[in-house]
Amino acid sequence: GGGDHTERQGVDADYKGSTVRSIWTLINAVGWVPILGSVCLSCALLIPFIGLARTQKLVWRIATIYFRLVLWATGISYTVIGLENLDPQRNYFFVCNHESIYDIPIAFAALPFWLIAVAKTVIAYFPFFGWAVALGGTIFITRSSHK
């Protein structure tokens, strides 16, 4: 009946919306990764002047901008609860469990702490992104090696 047609139109609209969002996300990722990755890489020139730690913090700031753009482009909204319980002067260990593809972008975008990531080694070889991640101080691990 008529209800089935209406439901089907809703499903098609959702599918088209997700396809458009996916294309928009891809365009943003392809556009912003080289731009912000290049900015991060140019930060390497600052190491002799401001030091490695400050350069890594600058790269972290650029990463937070990138991940906020990713979240905005994909239409993801989030709410952070409990930040008032964390002392900005202390160090913390945050773990993303990859329950979603958004846990790393949300962690970088939402947590007001300088984050150093742990990532699999293969990430370092992605042009621009991997190089910027490495410059940001990421600790790379080979998951097949227990050493």
UniProtKB/TrEMBL annotation:
State the UniProt keywords alphabetically. Acyltransferase, Membrane, Transferase, Transmembrane, Transmembrane helix
The opening ranks of the lineage are: Eukaryota, Cryptophyceae, Cryptomonadales, Hemiselmidaceae, Hemiselmis
Entry's Gene Ontology cellular component terms: endoplasmic reticulum
Query: Which parts pass through the membrane?
Result: 29-53, 65-83, 122-141
Has keyword Transferase? yes
Q: What is this protein called?
A: Phospholipid/glycerol acyltransferase domain-containing protein
A Gene Ontology biological process in which this protein takes part is: phosphatidic acid biosynthetic process
Q: Which residues form the Phospholipid/glycerol acyltransferase domain?
A: 79-145
GO molecular function terms noted in the UniProt entry: 1-acylglycerol-3-phosphate O-acyltransferase activity
